[in-house]
Amino acid sequence: MLGDGQDGVIESNQVFNIRCYNHDYADGDFAAGIYIQSSAHTVVRGNNINAIDAVNVYGIVNQANGSTFYNNLVSLGAGPSYGSNGSVVGIFDIENSVPNNYFFNSVYITGWSNRSEFASAFQNEGTGALNLKNNILYVDRTGQGQHYTLFSVNVAGLVSDYNDLRTSGTYLGYSNNQSVINLAAWRSITGQDMHSVSVNPHFPSWEDLHTTVVPLNNSGIAISGITTDYDGVTRGNPPDIGAYEISGTPPPLPVPTISGPTQACQGSTGVYKTQAGMSDYVWSVTGMSIVSGGTSNDSTLTVSLNVPVITRSV
């Protein structure tokens, strides 16, 4: 996916099972779920990217300025396509002379490597400011190469806090031309992430980036204009870290209208209709039996009327 232009929105996409069959290490083949090239002030939200296979793999690559990325899910290194043996980067910010913002994203890097290239949940090489808050950046990757949570070439412009930074590797991050062993050392070297944590989010699987880990609950900071999570659940105040709120009530389903007979002769049939395209509802009938339809995805229900007066609900 390539975004180019200005003031665009990339949202609610499922990007998965991308595979580069060449695997030519000399040519540096790569694949990316979302690649934004010079598209300033883009909003990227609510996308789910996973299972990409190439020499070098990127979930999101951004070469634009002044863009905002939030409530995105990125899972690389597992699935029908098994990542790569080269570099694996969840989010790669290449250019940010005007600040880019990364809020409430959940990034999971897993799998293995038999080459020396590093992996990272987030990497930045831009020269300007960059805001990184309320993200889960988790790397659980084995094999050769370093496996960083955060690889930051330019620390001067980095504003990072209220994140979960966690790796199973030797070093948590890379900054100022050196590998950084843990969160305490990262804070000392960068002056960032004073309110961040370093805990295993215990994702159920590479396909499911929900978490119930207590240290992430109510541990974020409110971001103006971002009031819901990936699922549309209202963000708490303070919000949870990551793309999903740990606890909360999903937005209510709209109540459908129902058309059909309210009275009819016993033994006859009746047809009831609600809005097409609605799902996850349960038809309930009294004084009649269902002849056809009536599943959670059916907008039409045909019934046999057993008594003159009937009631119906959905």
Overview of the molecule:
- The chain has 314 residues and is mainly beta.
- It folds into two domains: 215 residues; 45 residues, no CATH class.
- Helices cover 3% and strands 37% of the residues.
- The protein contains one helix and 27 strands.
- The chain starts with a strand and ends with a strand.
Task: Give the gist of this structure.
This protein is mainly beta. The chain has one helix spanning 183-190; strands at residues 2-3, 9-11, 14-19, 30-36, 43-45, 48-53, 56-62, 68-70, 73-76, 88-93, 100-103, 106-109, 112-113, 119-124, 130-133, 136-139, 142-143, 147-152, 158-161, 164-167, 173-175, 178-180, 269-273, 284-286, 288-293, 300-305, 311-313.
Tag the structure with descriptive keywords.
elongated; 27 strands; mainly beta; 3% helix; 37% strand; eight-stranded mixed β-sheet; 1 helix; 2 domains; 314 residues
The total beta strand count reads 27
Amino-to-carboxy terminus distance: 40 Å
Largest sheet: 8 strands, mixed
Principal-axes geometry comes out as: elongated
Low-confidence spans: pLDDT under 50, at least 5 residues? none
Q: Approximately how much helix is present in the residues?
A: under 10%
Report the C-alpha radius of gyration, rounded: 24 Å
What is the domain total for the residues?
2
Strand content: 35-45%
Structural class: mainly beta
Look at the structure and give the mean pLDDT: 82
**Strand order, biggest sheet?**
1-4-7-10-14-18-21-22
| Element-level helix/strand string | EEEEEEEEEEEEEEEEEEEEEEHEEEEE
Counted by DSSP, the helix tally is: 1
